[in-house]
């Protein structure tokens, strides 16, 4: 009976993570534009609000976490983790969504496990069997399909590559955490990392003139609300749920969230009248096949992430 209950709780956490992270891409779009496609907040403001709200939610946990991570080196790696794993990707994805659909951004996000493996090989000397390289190559083939007829130098390709760069940041962060922060509590890492991001996020909002805009335009409150929800749920709460699932179910089951996120993102996009092309469906299918091949078999029970 206890095993059954544990399994149900694990599946509940899994579904919640897919829904929350899969909804992040449409929330970014709501922060950027209204239903008529009229610009509201800038990409920098949406990303900064996301990081600021996540940092404020986790700030009460930071003092105790800071004391537990007594080593100065550990603290600096924790801050770097926040920058690579959250701050930079938040801005890159928001910038990307000023020119590409949220469904495409969600599909590109599925490439993260491939970059985790590539970074592990290129920077940490991990050895990857040939069949995993096949999965990586297939995944990149799927990425080419996503961009369809985009030509070199075109806006969709250029902005889509910003989203690809965000997944590279994720790959760097996952490997760095494994290499340098494996001894630290996941909750401590998150609370210190996001709390540190409060000041740079405030600086970005001040530099963009966000505070002055809010007194002049009432329609910006909806965009602000979407950005705050993105930070509280899509960043802070999702991080806590993910760490809970890792502790309960190990690292393999939580990694499968990668497969669910793009489908939720695409579902929201269709619901709000975005029209993904055939190349997005085909590209996503090929990417997920590549991710499956790159992460299958028993020798990946302790993956690079």
The total domain count is 1
Shape: globular
Largest sheet: none
Structural class determined from secondary elements: mainly alpha
Let me know the number of strands. Answer: 0
How many helices? Answer: 15
Low-confidence parts: 298-305
Please outline the helices and strands.
Layout: H1 2-32, H2 43-58, H3 62-68, H4 72-96, H5 102-109, H6 112-124, H7 130-146, H8 155-180, H9 186-196, H10 198-208, H11 210-214, H12 220-249, H13 252-255, H14 257-271, H15 278-295
Write up this protein.
This protein is mainly α. The protein has one domain (2-300). Helix content is 78%, strand content 0%. The protein has helices at residues 2-32, 43-58, 62-68, 72-96, 102-109, 112-124, 130-146, 155-180, 186-196, 198-208, 210-214, 220-249, 252-255, 257-271, 278-295. Helix 2 (43-58) crosses helix 12 (220-249). The longest helix is centred in the N-terminal third of the chain and has 31 residues, at 2-32. The radius of gyration is 19 Å and the shape is globular. The model is unreliable at 298-305 (pLDDT under 50).
